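Write out the 3D structure for:
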Amino acid sequence: MHFRSYLSSRLNKHVGSAALKTSIVLGTALCVIGSFAMPAQAGPGPVVATTQGKVQGFVVNGVSEFLGIPYAAPPVGNLRWRPPIAHAPWGGVKKATAFGPTCAQITTLGVFAGPANNNEDCLYLNVFTPNPSATAKRPVLVWIHGGGNYDGESNDYDGSKLASQGNTVVVTLNYRLNLMGFMALPDIDNHEGHPFGNYGIMDQQFVLKWVQTNIANFGGDPTNVTVGGQSAGASDTGINMVSPLSAGLLEHGICESSCPINEALLSVAENKGAAFEAAAGCGSQSTPAARVACLRALPAATIESLAGTASATSPYIQGPMVDGTVLPVLPIQAWHTGAFNKPMTIMNGRVEDEENFFTAIIEYFESPQAPLTAAQYEAFVNTTYTAPNALPPGLPYPAGTAAAVLAHYPLSAYPSAQLTWDAVGTDPASCAETHVNDLLGTKVPLYAYEFDDRTAPFYFPKLPGFVSWAYHTADIQYLFPFYHGGNAGIPHPLNAKQTILSNELVAAWTNFANTGNANGTGTVPWHRWTGSTRQYLSENISALSTLTAAQYAQRHMCAFWAGILPYTYGAAY
């Protein structure tokens, strides 16, 4: 969702392997193991020692799963809005057979996230491993869930297929969200002497340190760690590539919808923090210490009530920010200058119809639900591309942009207002991704893709007249079986062709985690992005194929958007 902040203020913000012949059967078997219907284990599961104590998991279809391992102390009371610290040791053996609590959130975007809750004690991770043996030394994939950094959870990500079919150790995690996880408060930032603002990112980095210390006992190789994520998880992956605090903790990065360009400047974030402090009733205290004490004494429910509603975030919500320590510069500046952690190998991609996820949310919350209209589409364009809206960090769209967009994307050229809206909402960020690929591909090995399966199962309930196609988040279910968005999403099995594509993507993702090269023994080579080979892997159920940057640019109207989006503005910061 991070590219929504790049495009507008409306929401505030992958080839085959040698095992492919047998993986269809395996993938089909695994598809019936969605996290919503986990079969019971047969007998006691394996016990693994961590630095805090022993944990006992369970085994499903040959994969050992350890769920709900606490990786940091609960960030409650005086630990609220502080960097994470180590969890206290425990005696005996802790059962690791159920996911930990979902982090506090209120905006669930209909079926995407949730449930809404006030949990602050939520810093738990999960490990999926083919064999918890300290001698196995398998590649490790740490996966960061999406949700705009204001909602989402790890519970819906079943890492068993990636672990089993890809012979990889998969780690998923919860991290602090919304006002709990991303909050710049001058009274803390200027007086307490610790890293501030990006607490959710610091949680992720604490997990990466936990992996360095503990993952060998689960069969993983701490010297071969890939960090990946989708949407906000992709943005956070990019931030971890840039952050000096992540140096030495990861070797590869996977940005699934997609590597970031911008995040907020600290001044913007602190203005939101000061407004939140006043709205919470703590702004009238006479000293910084008293105001912070007031904020840390607030019930979690009070804070979450200021975070927004089920369908929208509040004006106090802030995602990652350039704080100078966790994130020293804008990502686009780091991509320009090469000031990011190396060695690094990157996979960067998007889906063909990103915007259809966001238009689905709009229709979902309408009463009565009805297809989006021409008037709504025109209002979206006029609102998005007219002042005071601007490209962060404050560069305005050229005058007449809204009129130019409406002329270039006429309703008459598309089957419906919704699909016109999809094109307008999807194309700019897709074009921006090519620019990021050009910047990164000259500095490190990079592989680019577009997920093009327009038959992908849609986990929203049936919406009148809605065409989902390859919508934002559609690709996750091809990697994590039965992924269905969140608490209210509807899981669907993959059909035979989709299962083949799923197997191909799992092979690519785990080949990449193992070697930094997504290619296995498939018939379609996935070329590294270079000045002479600017090529996307097109992922669809017909067959994996290639898409040149020129073809991709034509699909997404990039010649038009080049005159609107100042792709190189990061060089000025």
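Residues 1-42, 568-573 have pLDDT under 50 and may be disordered.
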